[in-house]
Amino acid sequence: MTRILRLRLAAFSVACLVPFAFATVPALAAGGYGGGSDTGSGSTPVCKKGSVYDRKTQKCVKQSGANLSDDDLADYAYALAKAERYQEALEVLDTVKDQNSPEVLNYRGYATRKLGRLDEGIGYYLKSVAADPQYTQVREYLGEAYVLKGEIGLAKAQLQAIAGLCGTSCEEYRDLDSAINAAPKI
Predict the structure, then answer these.
(1) How many Å is the Cα radius of gyration of the chain?
(2) CA 8, 13, 15: angle at the middle one, nearest 5?
């Protein structure tokens, strides 16, 4: 299973698995300005503040004592961001050793954009694209940020890059195309 597919399966559908152990958070709908590629059949539970989900033990553990991989921390931070717990997502991302991984930069961009710090988010997205130009999810999110800024030409450039990477039927292309088409016409 590819890393991107694993990330999607792990992070896109946030649900409650054990009563009272996890906060119940509905999965967010995909598309438009909402932030894109959110579908998937797997889930990463979102724990109460100060805890993180450990896939090995399949339970929430205290964040301060957790010995989780960068991938696990990044996946969990993304799940928090999709659950609209953006500041907590950034705090988890702060604990990742490799701060320059494309996924960490992308998720940091997503959380900061959702906190209203659009230009800061774009800066993280651009660093992620530089680190991995083939990473279609970051191109989708960067394009959505450009749509929010009213820079439709830059958003369309990201759409074209996505088309070159995965075609026009992949989810990232469809979601960014929808965001561009939903943008107010000037």
Answers:
(1) 16
(2) 145
